[in-house]
Amino acid sequence: MSRSPLRVLAVGVTAAALLTSMQAPAQAAASACTHHLSGPQVCISTTGESGSANPGKVWTSWTNPPRERTRATVHITEPGGLTYTLTARRRDGQLVASVVPGRLMDNGKLCARYQSSSRTACVQIINRN
């Protein structure tokens, strides 16, 4: 099955809309999405200092989820292993959730995984102290 240029454009526009709809600064500190152009895509981004151990607000989204889904459980895992479980709600055709961790994180990956999705998106956290 070939990917149509329209589908590729739609995925790109969705990722751009995620960053703008989050009311984050134009350049988010760190962001990543799963790189599957066919089907749902999971993204994570932070609004704090770039790559910092204090990421500020953490946003996550599941673009193009099944149409009947109005909410989903998302697990955000910090580099030290602490996991937050949140409820994402449908917003502009995608499922979106956010959290403010409120403490410094260890070096490593900050990841988001939605239940019912096999995809995980991660950003790198670096403690500059």
Please, could you describe this protein's structure?
- With 129 residues, the chain is mainly beta.
- It is built from one helix and eight strands; from the N terminus they run H-E-E-E-E-E-E-E-E.
- The protein has one helix at residues 5-21; strands at residues 30-33, 41-46, 58-63, 71-77, 83-91, 94-99, 108-114, 120-125.
- The chain has an eight-stranded antiparallel beta sheet with strand order 1-2-3-6-5-4-7-8, with helices on one face.
- A hairpin with a 2-residue loop joins strand 5 (83-91) and strand 6 (94-99).
- The chain is elongated, with a radius of gyration of 14 Å.
- The model is unreliable at 5-28 (pLDDT under 50).
Globular, elongated, flat, extended or rod-shaped: what is the shape?
Answer: elongated
Oligomer: single chain
Q: Give the number of DSSP strands.
A: 8
Strand content: 35-45%
Task: Give a quick rundown of the structure.
This protein is mostly beta strands and 129 residues long.
Short descriptors:
single chain, 129 residues, mainly beta, eight-stranded antiparallel β-sheet, 1 helix
Topology of this protein?
Elements: H1 5-21, E1 30-33, E2 41-46, E3 58-63, E4 71-77, E5 83-91, E6 94-99, E7 108-114, E8 120-125
Antiparallel strand pairs: 1-2, 2-3, 3-6, 4-5, 4-7, 5-6, 7-8
